[in-house]
Amino acid sequence: MRIDIPEQKKLTYEMVIPIRWGDMDAMGHVNNTIYFRYLEIVRIEWMQSLGVALDPNGDGFVIVNAFCNFIRQLEYPGDILARHYVANPGRASFDTFITLERTDEPGVLYATGGATTVWVDFPAKKSLPLPDKVRALLL
């Protein structure tokens, strides 16, 4: 199933991620599981840029689903430009979308992915309304 990035989205973060030799598999391209690691890296870096600490004794984001569309094979060596977007803020959740392209091929998508994220009280294991500070960053 291919999930496209919605037109109504907000670019919230960009970063460059190096492709490591160890990211490749026996077929000579970046292993499919590593794409999810790249998506995680940019999502965590974005959260940290917001000052959102990952505290299991407090509240914060949790992923309730994740997806990745593999468009082209990434290969070592190279660097990836990852762009992080948000969309569809709700009471306690919002969607994140990420595009991956090589820095030496601007505008050529290699993968798109994302996740639905929910703001939760970790100890209580229950969703909470998005804090006003976080909601403001999503709009």
Quick take:
With 139 residues, the protein is of the alpha+beta class. 18% of the residues lie in helices and 40% in strands.
Q: Features of this protein?
A:
139 residues; alpha+beta; Thiol Ester Dehydrase, Chain A; six-stranded antiparallel sheet; 6 strands; 18% helix
Computed CA radius of gyration, to the nearest angstrom:
16 Å
CATH class bucket: Alpha Beta
CATH superfamily: Hotdog Thioesterase
CATH architecture: Roll
Instruction: Please tally the helical runs, counting DSSP H or I stretches of 4 or more residues.
Output: 2
Q: List the secondary-structure elements in sequence, H or E.
A: EHEEEEEH
Shape: elongated
- How far the N terminus sits from the C terminus, by CA atoms, comes to 28 Å
CATH topology label? Thiol Ester Dehydrase, Chain A
Give the structural class.
alpha+beta
If you average the pLDDT, what whole number results?
91
Structural overview:
This protein is α+β, with helices and mostly antiparallel strands. It is built from 2 helices and 6 strands, in the order βαβββββα. It has a single domain, classed as Hotdog Thioesterase (Thiol Ester Dehydrase, Chain A, Roll), CATH 3.10.129. Strands 1, 2, 3, 4, 5 and 6 form a 6-stranded antiparallel sheet that branches. The protein has helices spanning 32-49, 132-138; strands at 10-18, 59-70, 79-87, 93-102, 109-121, 126-127. It is elongated.
